[in-house]
Amino acid sequence: MANNAFSSKVGLIMAAAGSAVGLGNIWKFPYVAGENGGGAFLLVYLACVVALGLPMVATEFLIGQRSRHSAFGAFRQLNGNNRWQWLSWMCLTTSVLIMGFYFVVTGWCFNYLAEAVVNTFHAMSTDQLTAHFNGFIHSDLRMMLFSLVPIVLTAAVLWFDVNKGIEQLSKILMPLLLVMMILMVIRVLMLDNSMQGLRFFFHPDFSKITPNVILEAMGQCFFSLSIGMGALITYGAYMPPKQRVVYTSVQVAVLDTLVAVLAGVIIFPAVFSFGFNPEEGPKLAFIVLPAILEQMSLPWFSSVLFFSLLCIAALTSTISLMEVSVAYMVEVSEHWAKKNPRIKPLNRHKSVLLVAVVTIAITSLCVLSMTDAREWLSFGGHNLFDLLDDITSCYLMPLGALGMSIFVAWKMPLEGENGLTQNAKGLHRWVCIIYQQMIRWIIPIVIVVIFLYGLDIL
Ligand code: TRP
User: What domains, with CATH codes, occur in the chain?
Assistant: First the structure.
């Protein structure tokens, strides 16, 4: 249940944007775009944001706003029975699996911040930066320790309930991150060959658009906007009943996409100028960004500032990610305790501990799966880290989104107390009607078709 309302509309938008803007934009977007044809991917990605992402952000906000519950109670509250409860369990599973690999990458950011402080990247060549990263991901102990740092920090924020303070802080720091990124764009555009990178990123080669590229773009869109796992339902629960969901959704989607595109405009020109390969995969941002930061004026200061901001952007996402499971466990245990007096409900602190322990376990397995080819941690040639990344973005989040769109489209009427057009007049009423038709027909069909094509089933 919503236990603390947001002080203002801007506060809510900033909090939802803080959850959306994270490693998905700066680490994942450039590497997935690089692997999937650059400009072709960008085009499909933008189409996904407009056609699927935006209506789905609105859908999750609506579920929260109308039910006043988080993912666990929302479906039961709106539907009056348990029939849609599987969807809420899926949200929980997705959030736990995402944490498993997200904290590993957040650990990389903290490691790079520490190394920037001691000036490790000074005068390193392209090859040295690549070798440096490969060396790092082959030392389990170091990676494990650095993943523990954000897990402990995130759990501490949730334990002491100081999320409000972090939100205040990120209201100042997120704009600073944007300014820093714009400065990096300017520097990167002055490099030799930068135009080649821009061409790669903005000039779509239509022959590269394959079903798999479309599936990847859809998954990336859902991941980046934090859709399909109930995170935005929780924010919706804090929204005043009169707040217009559509406008808030547009603002969050635009901000998130802007940061992703900026990350691409920083990374790709540098990739071509320094002679990196755009298809490097998950390591791309971590070998290219230090090289760019070394080219800035005040390189030490720039690197430390940038990696600090990156760590904070990642933390605002991990906080909201972990909150999904923590709130869920509290509500599940309360629900069970009501039915069975022998079960004691978990309080918030116990729930934070439980979730943190599970997260540490999965994160450690991911770390171990990367360092050496450990057979028991790899499946079909993919290690656990890649697998979790893939399963959540390409399967679980789209399936969650599919379920939620069907739920809202068919379970929430247009008119009446809980109706979609409640309070809506004029143009806004029309937006609601078009929106209902979209989530009734277009969105479910598009998700299913992309899914079946991407998996080679059609
Ligand atoms: N959107 C986040 C990012 O781009 C990652 C994310 C996915 C997330 N699902 C989430 C964050 C749920 C918070 C809550 O980095």
Answer: 9-454 (1.20.1740)
Query: What are the start-end ranges of the E strands in 185-285?
Result: none
**How far is 133 from 113, CA to CA, in rounded Å?**
13
- Phi, psi (deg, nearest 5) at residue 2: -70, 115
The token pair at 115 is: 């190394």
Cα 317 to averaged position of ligand 1 atoms, centre (Å): 5
Nearest to 255 by CA among 225, 232, 235, 234: 225
Closest residue by Cα to residue 326 from 161, 168, 107: 161
- Check residue 1 and report its DSSP letter: -
**Cα of 397 from ligand 1 centre, angstroms:** 11
Q: How many CA atoms lie within 13 A of 306 on its CB side?
A: 27
pLDDT confidence of 11, banded at 50, 70, 90?
A: confident
pLDDT in tens, 304-328: 999 999 999 999 999 999 998 998 9
Task: Say whether 210 sits in a helix, a strand or coil.
Answer: coil
The tokens describing 292, both together, are 């760019």
Please name the residue that has the structure tokens 């506060």: 11
Task: Give the DSSP H or E segment for 383.
Answer: strand 382-383
Compute the distance from residue 421 Cα to the ligand 1 centre, in Å. Answer: 29
19 lines ligand 1 (CB under 6 A): yes
List CB contacts of 258: < 8 A, sequence separation 6 or more: 178
SS3 407: helix
